[in-house]
Write the structure tokens for this entry.
Amino acid sequence: MLIGMVSAKASPGVTTSALALASVWPRSALVVEADPFGGDVRAGLAAGQWPPSSGLVEAVADLRSVSLDEALARRVHRPAAWAPPVLAGLGCVGQAATLPWGRLGADLGRVRDADVITDCGRYLPSDGVLGLLRECWLVVLVCGSSLRAVRSAARVGSLLSRDLGCPPGDPRLSLLVVAPDDPYGSAEVAGACGLPLLGELPDDPRAAGVWSDGGASWRGFGRSPLQRSARRLAERITGTDDPDAVRPRGEDRPRDDGRGESRSRDDGSSTGSGTTPPVARRGRGAA
């Protein structure tokens, strides 16, 4: 499963949301920092203690001679016991133009033994990352609840719907509201943006600082409002909070593995960028 997370101008928390989700994901999960404007995760997570070659550019260069699984094994870094494995992002903006975003997305969608959550930063149609987003099983637009954030998200949501070919209400493009009720509630924000509401994450500065500013974890970190909400959201996305939402075997279109054969997950469900997320079949409100 490949998930893309993007933001609009004045919208907070894509990197924090991606890391929090991956840290409590019901299955193995990997975060790929795919922001075309350059990554910040190395500066914000684990106080900058990162190997020098644990980045996206190095992994893409490795693909010239090795498989993606081997490239990830070389370059992915887990900075702390409580953090998910991460492939850090670009060092500068100019590197984005050299990356084959569409091929990268297709390859990430075929990663074995883990779901991949990509932090794609602020969305601009011209930055190249659209090729990756088109390979995603689910694209999540992260939005705050202020008037300025909602206005920006509504404009970007319309662009994404057009660029991804998602008709109105298509849950493959959904909204995540960070710090709701400041002042607008999540349902109001989703209505203004014209997108299905996937869920919400609370304003929890102490826990968010662990992911964004090198803050130290603590004994009750896993029970913080942010982590508890992220766990519920992760379970909702994967369908593990509702046995009735688990995909029947063979229901979804499988992804071709490059040899003309479909590849299935170990749990018996097929994977692919053209599948419908479990939330589409649930018909329920946000977690």
Observations:
- The chain has one domain: 2-282.
- The two ends are 20 Å apart (CA to CA).
